[in-house]
Design a protein that fits this description.
heterodimer, A: alpha/beta, twelve-stranded mixed β-sheet, 13 helices, globular, B: about 90 residues, about 45% helix
Chain lengths: ~425, ~90
């Protein structure tokens, strides 16, 4: 069977830097941190040690028609806005993209760690005091379900192809892109809107805090954290937002003369199978090697590694060991979480989008707050200041609780003439 | 509470919950065809009315016959005039 080639033709992002990929890239270029103190907002929660976060922008939610809006939470609004951005990027703002696909040939795969944490908390706050189910509203359930973003975005956009939610915590969004890649490669979809979306809530930060995986030493100097790969790193900073990409069958994209950011040439996802919370360098190495094998390229052909590195003590060291094992100190490595925190299930696609734009602009932005590379993260080529150099091929990593690993390989496309117009 | 007061409170609820302009909230307005509500909205309406008027509607057969806003005014007015239901024999744990 001849597998299809898969290209990226549309990008959309909501990040702690603002709406759209542009403000995100400006923030990276300006070495800005989006981490702020949450001491006032979260003061009602006791025993929460981590009082920092990277909040996203407030959107005009009323712009969504009520009967779509009623089942959407903040993360779904983020996902919907980013999806519309991706379609506008691919087809122009006058089109919603559906006209370009046969019925059932455009899919939607969006992951998140859980359903809306805000809605989940509201549901239990409403129900539990009197154990009264009758107080639950009709629509809250649709915000709580694990596939809330995927189904709401698909409903709002009238998508009739495959709709999936990849719920694997911090690897959710990259798994969505990988699943989209596989579906298109196999010819089961012509294109898929894919990515991840998340929203902030103190219970989310608290979940990492109880595991001693959230940053708690920089509450008074929030811009100093997270610190990926740094000697003084102390955990993650939760962020919120969404990253959505349009992946498309190359022939379909070429036929309509689409702008192509890159070709997805390889992907792999696998589990470590040995610990529920701790990353494992052997499994990470296996994941990266398999992604390269899937792409049919050698490590020498990779120009940049966009690391997962969230600033945790254990995870960063394991990832550095895996990168060192495969790439040595030859390939530039940076993590963008120093700028926008860890947007969890959205982090893979958000950082993938930034990397695609870095590739377009021939620039590599550094790991913010990496001042003193930790000895246990040594032996790889840390990027500590902006580098201007051509980038043709990169690998994007995402690792998650549950020992779940994912890696995606993308390559710049040499422009080819468009085929005849395609309806 | 008279029927006019019931209608006024329902109008406020419909403005808030369903974002329907007051001038469309006429007694003969059909909930689905004229006001654009759907089955999910009807479930939401029951929850909101129960909370607002302290009545139980979830298992009401009569509620299923409601078609217009005027039907709803009559139904709620009749419900709030009924004697309160007895306490459940099955207390929560």
């Amino acid at each position: 069977m001849q597998l299809k080639r898969v290209v990226i033709t549309g990008l959309g992002a909501i990040t702690p830097m603002g709406v759209g990929p542009g403000p995100f890239l400006d923030g990276l270029a300006g070495h800005r941190s989006a981490t702020v103190s949450m001491r006032d907002q979260w003061r009602h929660f006791c025993n929460l040690r981590s009082l920092v976060a990277a909040p996203g922008p407030d959107l005009n939610e009323k712009s969504v028609p009520r009967q779509n809006r009623r089942s959407m939470s903040r993360m779904s609004f983020y996902g919907y806005d980013a999806a519309r951005q991706a379609l506008a990027d691919a087809f122009g703002s006058e089109s919603d993209g559906r006209d370009h696909f046969s019925p059932g040939r455009l899919g939607c795969i969006i992951g998140s760690t859980t359903g809306s944490p805000i809605a989940l908390n509201e549901t239990f706050e409403t129900m539990l005091p009197d154990r009264d189910i009758g107080k639950l509203t009709a629509v809250k359930f649709f915000q709580c379900v694990s596939h809330t973003v995927a189904m709401n975005v698909a409903q709002c956009l009238g998508i009739t192809g495959t709709v999936l939610a990849t719920n694997a915590a911090c690897a959710s969004g990259l798994q969505a892109a990988g699943a989209a890649y596989d579906l298109i490669r196999l010819g089961r979809q012509d294109a898929v809107l894919c990515g991840g979306a998340e929203e902030l809530h103190p219970s989310v930060t608290g979940s990492f805090d109880v595991l001693f995986a959230a940053s708690a030493r920089y509450n008074d100097t929030p811009a100093e954290t997270p610190r990926p790969f740094d000697r003084d790193r102390d955990g993650i900073v939760c962020g919120e937002g969404a990253g959505i990409l349009l992946l498309e069958d190359h022939e379909h994209a070429r036929a309509r003369g689409a702008k192509i950011y890159a070709e997805v040439i390889g992907y792999h996802t696998c589990a470590s199978g040995d610990h529920i919370s701790q990353s494992n360098r052997i499994a990470l190495t296996r994941c990266l090697r398999q992604a390269l094998a899937n792409a049919k390229i050698s490590p020498e052909q990779i120009d940049y590694v966009n690391a997962h590195a969230a600033g945790t003590i254990q995870g960063d060291a394991e990832e550095a060991a895996a990168i060192r094992e495969i790439f040595g100190d030859r390939v530039p490595v940076s993590s963008l979480k120093g700028n926008i925190g860890h947007t969890l299930g959205a982090s893979g696609p958000i950082e993938l989008i930034a990397t695609l734009m870095m590739m377009r602009d021939n620039v590599i932005y550094p790991t913010l707050n990496l001042r003193n590379p930790a000895p246990d993260c040594d032996g790889i080529q840390h990027v500590t200041s902006t580098i201007s150099r051509p980038m043709d091929t990169f690998i994007k990593n995402s690792f998650a609780f549950g020992g779940i690993n994912a890696a995606l390989v993308c390559k710049k496309m040499i422009s080819e003439p468009a085929l005849k117009n395609h309806g | 509470m008279d029927k006019q007061q019931v209608a006024a409170r329902i109008a406020t609820l419909f403005e808030t919950e369903f974002e329907i302009a007051p001038d469309r909230l006429l007694p003969d307005a059909h909930l689905f065809q004229d006001l654009g509500l759907d089955s999910i909205d009807m479930v939401e309406m029951i929850v909101v009315l129960q909370k607002e008027f302290g009545i139980q509607l979830r298992d009401s057969e009569e509620a299923r016959a409601i078609r217009t806003l005027g039907n709803l005014h009559d139904f709620v007015f009749n419900e709030i005039g009924k004697p309160a239901a007895g306490v459940s024999a099955d207390p929560r744990p």
